[in-house]
UniProtKB/TrEMBL annotation:
Full protein name: Methyltransferase domain-containing protein
Domain spans labelled Methyltransferase: 50-146
UniProt-listed Pfam families: Methyltransf_25
InterPro entries linked to this entry: Methyltransf_25, Methyltransf_Superfamily, SAM-dependent_MTases_sf
Gene Ontology molecular functions: methyltransferase activity
Length: 267
């Protein structure tokens, strides 16, 4: 009989100690100033409460803390990622959990959070069933009028040209149409030392949007990094000498592999 201990460890356990390196590759780095500017416009109130689903090493929670949030709770399927999150900021409260399923056992406060984050949360759904599970959790824990803020892989294009090669330090090496017709499975590789690789899914936009609507969210807003965000990255030495040439960044900006997503829970 299969038991829990027979289950393979979450794929991110093995990546935890090196995971944050991926935020330094050109394919990803401009997302950080972009996400920061989106959060700044949302103007979190001092003392805001934040639940970060798929919090990983806690980058999103630390960002919200910089904006004055004071209740900082993270959930992730990988205990090793959570261990790093706690090392980086011992004030975080973290729980191990699978966000595709009800999180009732964790004792989180229903409708208790001003913000729910999902920074590459929604890319771990092989079908609309898991997508519905994730949105059910987002809807259950967010306050009425609260904001969901996240990052997703670009769900409009099967294989964005900016990540068909390693030009920007990150590549989707294997994009396969899912048998259920709902999107694609992808293998993602980063040119870090050591290399970081993982498997993920991208369901089509209308599937994500239908499940968000069922969970009580209104219109979804998508945005992507701009030239201003690239300037911040270049200023931090990302992209090397070549990266200082505007033309070098054009493919990444025009064919962004990721979107920032914001949705508001109806009151
Ligand atoms: C690309 S990482 C993002 C981590 C963090 N949000 C960040 O941006 O740095 C994806 C995270 O999702 C977590 N994850 C994957 N599937 C999950 C699930 N079903 N429930 C909870 N966490 C999950 C992984 O363990 C990993 O930490």
């Amino acid at each position: 009989m299969a038991t829990d201990s027979d289950a393979a460890p979450p794929q991110y356990d093995a990546l935890a100690s090196v995971y944050d390196l991926l935020w330094r590759v050109p394919a990803v780095h401009p997302l950080l100033p972009h996400l920061t500017s989106v959060v700044e416009k949302l103007a979190p109130a001092s003392g805001a409460s934040v639940l970060d689903l798929a919090c990983g090493t806690g980058l999103g929670l630390r960002l919200m803390k910089r904006f004055g949030a004071s209740t900082l709770v993270g959930v992730d399927i990988s205990p090793q990622m959570l261990e790093i999150a706690k090392k980086l900021d011992p004030t975080l409260t973290v729980y191990t959990g699978d966000c595709t399923k009800p999180l009732d056992d964790l004792g989180l406060e229903p409708h208790g959070y001003d913000y729910v984050l999902g920074i590459w949360l929604l890319n771990y759904c092989p079908s609309s069933v898991e997508m519905a599970g994730m949105w059910a959790n987002i809807g259950r824990y967010i306050k009425p009028g609260g904001k969901f803020v996240g990052i997703i892989e670009n769900h409009d294009v099967a294989h964005p040209i900016s990540v068909r090669t390693m030009k920007y330090g990150g590549m989707m090496s294997d994009v396969q149409e899912l048998e259920n017709g709902e999107g694609w499975s992808v293998h993602v590789v980063f040119d870090t030392q050591p290399p970081i690789e993982f498997d993920a899914f991208r369901l089509r936009g209308p599937i994500l949007e239908a499940e968000a609507k069922k969970a009580g969210f209104g219109e979804i807003f998508y945005s992507k990094p701009t030239w201003e965000d690239v300037k911040v990255s270049v200023g931090e030495g990302i992209g090397g000498e070549d990266g200082k040439d505007e033309a070098w960044w054009t493919e990444l900006i025009e064919h962004s592999p990721n979107y920032v997503i914001v949705a508001t829970k109806e009151g």
